[in-house]
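Example record

One chain of 828 residues, shown exactly as stored in the release files.
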Amino acid sequence: MVKAYFGYKFETLFGSIGNNGGVIINDIAYTIVDQYLLLLNIKTQEIIQQIVIEGKNIKTTKIAIKDNTLAIGYHDGEIVIYNLIDNEIQCRFFNHQSEITQLVFLSEAVLISGSCDTSIIVWDLADQQLQFRLIGHSNQITALDIISLEDQSLAITQQFIVSGSKDGLVKIWDLNLECSIATLSSMHSEVTCLCVYENYLLICTNSDEVLIKSCQLISGKCQIDNDGIIKRQSFIRAVQCQYVQQKLLILNNEKKIEVYKSKQGKKLQKAENFSQSLIYSTVISQLNKIVYFQAIVFKNLLKIYIFTSDNQIVIKELNNDNVDENNNISISQITGQIKQIKLTQNDHKLVVIASNKCYQFDNETAQQVNCLNNTSNLTSLCILPKNKYFMVGDEQGTLYLVDMNQNEIVFEQKTHNSNINSIECHENCKAFNGLVIMTTEIDKKVNFVELFFNKTQKCLEFQVVNTIYLKENIRSAQFSYDGNYYAFAQMNNIVSIYYCDSHKLYLELYGHSLPVLTFAYTSDDTIVISAGADKSIKLWATDFGNCKKTLKAHTAEVIQIKTVNDTHYFFSGCKDNIIKYWDGDTYQLILQFNEALAGIQSMVVGCIGDLFYSATKNGVIRKYVQTKEQIFVSEEEEKRLQESLMQELQNKNKQQTGFDQGLDQVKKDLTLVQIGQQKLLETEQLMDILEKIKQYRETIDQGEIPNEDLFYNKNVTEYLFDNLQNSDLSSLMKFLHHQHLVTLIDEMNQDIALKQYPIIINKLITYIFNKVDGFGFNSHEIMMKVINIRTQLQIYFKKEKKIAGYNLDILNLMIQDISKNQDDFVFE
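Predicted structure tokens for this chain:
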């Protein structure tokens, strides 16, 4: 008979605000928590929505928002476009080969992405496809922004992409030409971040300098000027910068935001010494690492939203040059590393200890109910029967009794000399005539504690009634369900079981090759399940202590074992980020949960097994609930095998795609090299012709007879322009020497050239005026020749226009005449 089980599915997050940055728009914070996105109302500090992309268990690295469109970038290079109105995935892109580092919206229909694979891709969201790829950087893209430049000569404003990379280059890309039109390569180290203000680029490198560049668009040509260098107050690497309200804010890797203000509050402008235009103002510090910040001007007040790595958003107001500490707002739930989580007996509340705080959450609403602060870090937790009190221990060896409803410490006492790493209780232990609490510390000491009512103080207190010392350090402890035994997982790779009444050794479970880190009794006390640093799980019979089965369960240390009441089912949590659900009778793996992106730190299962929680090292608590859908082990094995094969196939496809793209790029490069060589050859030939013409004209000027065979008995000017007709004029103008240019202009000024080759001459004049700075004209005579040629061309084109107009008039008269006498004509 095939055994069926009920499955579990992820339902919600508990206690999370964000651990990897976010974006603020209209008092709504879009924050990243591992692979999830949260929408948080800044004013009410309530979570409005959780966005979960089904089947996506990869870290979210970047987000961008435009109107109702949300772009999500992942560590594996995928980009998901999500509609915030319909709450549906609009499309998915897989063209990047590695982590998405930058996302910027050009418009609601155009998205630009940068990646560790060195490429920049422009996406068409309307057609849901790749528009084109910009290739030019040789290392990770570290910055992307949009700059708008006005071309006053053409009276147009055009948008360009600005990119920075670890290769030390800053590039400006023209979306119409789909290529780079300017490159700044004077950086002495990698570009870590940049920002755009009007037509200025503020570029941070991996040093203590901020480079200021101004950009101008003149006749379609992008001109970049060096406007100076700002010396920062710190050598620490800059990771983000923003210019707002005449202030430059720079986030560094030392948990600080440096603030530089514009002198006298003026706008940026050219100065001989730019360091005098922006001066150091103040610094904003946080205790924990700042992941991201966003500065927003609200009613002439600068608010800085700081996203920290410890699940917190801090809002600071910058008033003039000072941070107004009195108006700081901190939005947080669980901060610090989570040590333990426990459920009350009726599953109504989830209690969490992290750092020096103890949190209570409502199981149904996931809202925080209470928070208790302590002076030292808490290390262990136990909820007492009837859900009125719980006990916590700290790293100093102090034990606290806490009233759950009043959220206050009732009694405290130092019972240990060091870290209390485990607190367990049993309400019907016959050896202690009722409730007993067992506390352990890592250095072999075990205390047994009882509660009593102090009539004098009129409060509940506790006292140590017995103490024993073990031979080995203790990792975890637990009572058996019947209260007759207690057991310890020890550093000597053994699980030791003792009698509660006599405290004598009952059994020692040998078999692990490395220290046992966790264990659990099944609810009928017939099996002990242990796991540890050797990555295996062992099931032991409690009657004789024999090992019933060894499971090669995980690829790293197993941290947690939790059993389901009234069954032999159990969960295992591991440092490999995976939770597994097992059947202790058939020794089969039922389900595997891959949602965690950090090692499992703690777990707890509901009293009837209909839900369970997991807490990871990065401070994320996930709630899973039991489904009504039945699952079968064989089907789940097939699914896991299929997912594994699909993952292998995707990895191979990525490698093959990368190889194919590399091969295509090599082919393109070879083609470009061949084209370049051909153009260079043509240019050299034309330069040889110009050199011959120069020598020919000099021979005539000296009164000598030139060699006519040089031009195959053609007119010199005709020979030149016949060769120019099929040539790349832009390449010619790039490589043309000043002397050859003078010869070319002289030939353009010939009557025969103006009459027979006006189109070519018009193109040449356009190139000459566009490249005039590059040629370095100093001769007034040469420029007058060019202007004279242009004037003659204008006269020629006006004359041609009149002739064309005259011909058109005659044609119109003929058409009218035909129309009047239409009956005399037969059209076939």
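Notes: The two ends are 88 Å apart (CA to CA).
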